[in-house]
User: Which sequence fits this backbone?
């Protein structure tokens, strides 16, 4: 794929089960590394990039093609952190680092129940974490050398992850 211009800033995908700290980590990293933070959930709501509401899972059914079309130009510019609980539909070329946040199950359960998750929504998300579905999905869809799993149980973990990732951003070089 020939690009007219190379990105001067890296793009990062921060993924993980709901409740693992994606938005908290993404926001803090955006501030620390001077990157733009795009929450796919917010983008889908703001721009109506969905195909309706799923009553059982209590969420929008996102239209992946519309989301990718909306983000294409921004991602080519670079310097973007994308925050979403999935990763299998984004073009591989978009990301220089894919971060999978992971949280211990009992901590995750408490976080999700505080958010009001129950029934299928709660059990599906806990199972997703137990079976490391998102880590496997990331490894299947991206070069393994750009995928990193980071523990996200505590405020200290988040701070450490932000510091590690900000250092990575500051040392990143465009691929020639």
Assistant:
């Amino acid at each position: 794929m020939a690009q007219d211009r190379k990105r001067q800033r890296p793009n990062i995908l921060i993924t993980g089960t709901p409740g693992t700290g994606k938005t908290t980590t993404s926001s803090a990293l955006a501030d620390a590394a001077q990157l733009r933070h795009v929450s796919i959930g917010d983008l889908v709501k703001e721009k109506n990039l969905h195909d309706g509401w799923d009553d059982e899972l209590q969420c929008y059914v996102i239209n992946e093609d519309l989301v990718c079309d909306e983000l294409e130009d921004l991602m080519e510019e670079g310097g973007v952190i994308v925050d979403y609980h999935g990763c299998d539909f984004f073009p591989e070329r978009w990301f220089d680092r894919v971060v999978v946040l992971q949280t211990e199950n009992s901590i995750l359960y408490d976080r999700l129940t505080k958010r009001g998750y129950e029934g299928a929504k709660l059990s599906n998300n806990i199972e997703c974490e137990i079976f490391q579905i998102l880590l496997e999905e990331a490894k299947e869809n991206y070069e393994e050398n750009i995928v990193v799993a980071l523990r996200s149980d505590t405020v200290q973990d988040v701070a450490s992850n932000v510091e590690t990732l900000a250092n990575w951003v500051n040392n990143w070089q465009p691929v020639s």
